[in-house]
């Protein structure tokens, strides 16, 4: 007598459908061949078959205990027979009768824990990631100040170029001299959007709300309050004007080869542009009935021609260039979407939402692979560290590192109750910077943390995240608005809500 894995999958699928767990049944249906079995055998398999088989299996296991190896029936304990047989009792009987064979020699895996070591492994305290010099935290010093800007972006290919977006409708591109101890601005290019009436207020400030360099670093895209987009060369020359949005731009994203652009505004309008000609190719206007709430503040490419955008009620819409309707939607989040990041290495999408959860989505599946809880307030950043680990920050003052393969929290840092307004991971994925409400910036040593996590097989509790350096703001009542890393991962810029932008160095 035998049963195949596909037959077992079908029985589980039937059980899920019969018990009303339609979402779980759909997930299993996507990953197996249950529909083929349904066509062939569905009418011949009665309701409740899986539960019936399991109950018979429990009874058979208990019956085995009453028969000796030579076929003789053991004395019957009437009191035992009057008790209900349970699954736990059956598993204990099976373990006694057929003890687990420990892998040895060439059959043993490096990651296998020997049976005699298991108890010690469970009680082993979490290792420290801070190392011997845990009390030493480097104090980072200011290298240069720039005029006040709400956001800043380093060029992804040249360390000496940085773009700054201000409240005066202008984008500044600064070319720096960074060789000496004292940094200097060698050239400053001004890229001016025309002053215009703001779409949200009766003013003509028309602040720069978004900046994004192209992957090659040759072009800079800027968006302002009235919805206008402008494309500039790296030396400040106007290349194109993209004018179709009618409300403040809140997100911009180039695709991997720099041929197309995604832009999103405050009214939930997303537009796909041809970066070379400035022509709008697709227009998505996602409206939720009786609601003026922003559905999300992020968009993301998941390939050269596929992308995801926010949808109603926390849904993630999967779209493709050339098709005016979404290919499908990912259901799981329930509120405004705040973070997307696609990992091309493992083909997985990371998302965060104001429902205080972080989810991981696998390519080809409509159900999330992971759903991480823990944050008690809005999530302000979420990034892939590698193909397994994810790092997040939140206004609740915590930084968390999760493992998607282990489905668990691996590391945790609390910032003394100070809200974290933004977070940014370095291009080399070895450092993570957070900007706080009090104006300070803390930089975590992710490289050291990952080495510790790789050295242990399991954790009893999350370990602390080692701190590499700290920058203390000397002003009052001023919070960090944005952080941007330099291409070499050794410098970063800090934009403040009410003060000049600061550049600091880790060197």
TrEMBL record:
SUPFAM superfamilies: WD40 repeat-like. WD repeats lie at residues 201-233, 242-283, 330-361. Keywords: Nucleus, Repeat, WD repeat. Its main location: nucleus. It comes from Lachancea fermentati. One of its GO terms (molecular function) is transcription corepressor activity. It comes from the Eukaryota. Residues 104-134 are annotated as: Disordered. GO terms for biological process: regulation of transcription by RNA polymerase II. InterPro entries: Beta-prop_IFT140_1st (IPR056154), Ebi-like (IPR045183), LisH (IPR006594), WD40/YVTN_repeat-like_dom_sf (IPR015943), WD40_repeat_dom_sf (IPR036322), WD40_rpt (IPR001680). Pfam families: Beta-prop_IFT140_1st (PF23383), LisH (PF08513), WD40 (PF00400). This is LAFE_0D08702g1_1. GO terms for cellular component: Set3 complex. The keyword Repeat applies. Residues 107-124 have a biased composition (Basic and acidic residues). It is found in: Nucleus. The keyword Nucleus applies. Residues 201-283 form the IFT140 first beta-propeller domain.
């Amino acid at each position: 007598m035998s049963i195949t894995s596909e037959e077992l999958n079908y029985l589980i699928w039937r059980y899920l459908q019969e018990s009303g767990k339609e979402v779980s049944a759909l997930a299993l249906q996507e990953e197996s061949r249950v529909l083929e079995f349904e066509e062939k055998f569905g009418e011949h398999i009665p309701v409740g078959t899986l539960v019936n088989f399991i109950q018979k299996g429990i009874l058979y296991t208990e019956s085995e205990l009453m028969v000796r190896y030579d076929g003789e029936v053991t004395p019957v304990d009437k009191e035992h027979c009057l008790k209900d047989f349970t699954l736990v009792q059956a598993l204990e009987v099976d373990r006694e009768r057929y003890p687990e064979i420990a892998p040895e020699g060439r059959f043993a895996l490096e990651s296998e824990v020997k049976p005699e070591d298991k108890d010690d492994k469970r009680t082993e305290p979490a290792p420290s990631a801070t190392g011997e010099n845990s009390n030493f935290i480097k104090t980072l010093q200011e290298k240069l100040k720039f005029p006040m800007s709400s956001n800043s972006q380093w060029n992804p290919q040249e360390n000496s170029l940085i773009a700054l977006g201000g409240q005066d409708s202008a984008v500044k591109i600064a070319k720096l001299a960074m060789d000496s101890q004292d940094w200097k601005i060698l050239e400053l290019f001004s890229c001016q959007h025309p002053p215009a009436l703001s779409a949200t207020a009766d003013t003509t400030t028309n602040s720069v709300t978004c900046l994004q360099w192209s992957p090659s670093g040759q072009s800079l895209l800027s968006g302002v309050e009235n919805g206008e987009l402008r494309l500039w060369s790296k030396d400040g020359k106007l290349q194109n004007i993209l004018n179709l949005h009618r409300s403040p731009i809140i997100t911009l994203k180039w695709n991997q080869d720099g041929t197309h652009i995604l832009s999103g505004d405050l009214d939930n309008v997303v537009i796909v542009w041809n970066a070379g000609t400035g022509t709008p190719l697709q227009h998505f206007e996602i409206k939720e009935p009786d609601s003026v709430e922003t559905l999300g503040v992020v968009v993301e490419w998941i390939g050269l021609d596929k992308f995801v955008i926010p949808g109603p009620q926390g849904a993630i819409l999967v779209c493709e260039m050339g098709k005016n309707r979404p290919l499908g939607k990912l259901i799981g989040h329930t509120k405004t979407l705040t973070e997307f990041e696609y990992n091309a290495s493992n083909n997985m999408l990371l998302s965060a939402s104001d429902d205080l959860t972080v989810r991981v989505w696998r390519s080809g599946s409509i159900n999330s692979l992971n759903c991480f809880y823990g944050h008690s307030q809005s999530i302000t950043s979420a990034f892939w560290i590698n193909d397994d680990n994810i790092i997040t920050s939140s206004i609740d003052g915590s930084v968390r590192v999760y493992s998607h393969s282990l489905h668990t929290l691996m590391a945790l840092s609390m910032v003394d109750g100070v809200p974290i307004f933004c977070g940014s991971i370095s291009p080399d994925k070895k450092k993570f910077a957070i900007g706080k409400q009090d104006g300070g910036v803390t930089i975590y040593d992710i490289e050291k943390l990952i080495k510790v996590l790789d050295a242990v097989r399991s954790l009893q509790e999350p370990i602390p995240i080692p701190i590499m350096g700290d920058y203390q703001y000397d002003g009052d009542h001023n919070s960090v608005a944005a952080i941007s890393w330099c291409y070499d991962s050794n410098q970063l810029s800090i934009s403040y809500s009410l003060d000049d932008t600061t550049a600091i160095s880790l060197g």
